[in-house]
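User: Can you predict the 3D structure for this chain?
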Amino acid sequence: MSPPEHFVVEYAINPWMDTTAPVDTELAVKQWEGLRETFVRLGHEVHVLMPEIGLPDMVYAANGAFSVDGVVYGARFKYPQRTAEAAAHRRFYDTIGWRYVTPSQTNEGEGDFTYLPAALGGLVLAGHGFRTEVAAHAEAQEALGRPVISLRLVDPRFYHLDVALAPLDDENVVYYPGAFSEASRSVLAQLFPAAILATEEDALAFGLNLVSDGRNVVLNSEATTLAARLREAGYTPVPVELSELKKGGGSIKCCVAELRR
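Assistant: Here is the predicted structure, written as structure tokens:
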């Protein structure tokens, strides 16, 4: 995670960013710290990547890379405003000694990649359509040695996979069907017949931009219907308020790069 000490909305590269809407950076830091403390309270170790001046979106740490079994497929951002973030993430992974694969294809890390270790022995789901090029899916498969399933995003409000779908445990997911093409919806239905489906209202509240440890599901506090469905399915919803960071087009998951050793 990377604290939003320099967080502002001074450019617009997704439908949620409004450069005329004021950002309370002090509140953003307070909310981010509450999120970090939530993960620590739930028993997770949090590494902090120090923010850099001139990179206001660095708080969205999920976009910097994607790792599986200590191998890191690096990010190559679509927009120049975020390009330098990739190097900051690489320095972190070099420090902890993980093998880093430099990408040649445009991709935005865990924004468009996620992993289910028990599905088909280890399955990567990968989004494309707005930020990540579909060619990056094949490159990630070669880098990580895991099968990759391509899913096409069709609604610009859900410009990354991580605002449309999330793993709940090692083999099941929750997603909003309207974010995907008809063919991709068919693929998801075949792969995950027991998936939880989110409403459009909860998806627009960034409810799917969540982090689950298989039991506790940390999600945006506005996604109340989804929280109820998760509770009914046996999970424990842990609501967190991130109103300021939503102004940049992200929420819980966007702030977290999961380290898969």
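The domain at 25-255 is CATH 3.75.10.10 (L-arginine/glycine Amidinotransferase; Chain A). The radius of gyration is 17 Å.
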